[in-house]
User: Fold this.
Amino acid sequence: MTALTATGVTKRYTNHLALDQVSLEVPEKSIYGLLGPNGAGKTTLIRIINQIIDADAGEITLFSERLNPKHIGTIGYLPEERGLYKKLKVGEQLLYLAQLKGLTRAEALEKLKVWFTKFEIKDWWNKKVEDLSKGMAQKVQFVSTVLHEPKLIILDEPFSGFDPINAQLITQEILELRDKGSTIIFSTHRMETVEALCDHIALINRSHKILEGPKKQIKDAYKTNTFVVDHRGDISLPADKYDLLEQHQLEDALWQSTIRIRGEQRPNELILDLVNQTELHSFIEKIPTMSEIFISLVKEDPTQQ
Assistant:
């Protein structure tokens, strides 16, 4: 099933076209990476979904209903620019925000006990936000985003400012939220995070969507039939069948060669050609990273011209 569908969404600011006929589908109970360089239109789309601004054209449906004000309570939004009240105490602020999302005070207190224990922040209840470090404040804002158990969670650069330990903690919570049934839209520049977390991705560049689909399917589509081989001994491969892209010596007289298969040859044929002339230690297909795909597509995008 589809959690969110955007169809032909367009938004213009005076002389700047922020989104141009953007359509995408976010599968239910998935982590959906919304990727793109600065100024691509990601934040504009997120603001439209959150009903902070209106689209000039197009339509968004959320869980098969046209987006409307009642959906505000079903969305949890963590913006890149954090928005906590600095003078308020942490507990007081979280109770207030939870009640804005429809929880009673008693419900909010019960849920906050769970999160404060989970995040080991029980002694923060009476601290003012202005007395917290950036990472501490982000933990508080993350709790405020998910406390009402929204069906759709939108996270805009959620790991900004976190140390590795807390980034891992938030990663585990995001995966757990998905496993419990939430759909998560994840906007980030950090490609290693996309590799680790996202099930599906969309790439927006200069107001256009230029790529969308399951992460594995996209990575498979951009494979180049290239293999990284560790071996002991020289190799000499026929140039009409293979390209030797790179070669360097490892330790203990081992060499590592990067080989691209040309034409219709299969990997098994390459293995046979190798074992006949060298001692083979490893044979691994080189799968493109999301960062490599991202960079190549942005460079190739005709709207850049």
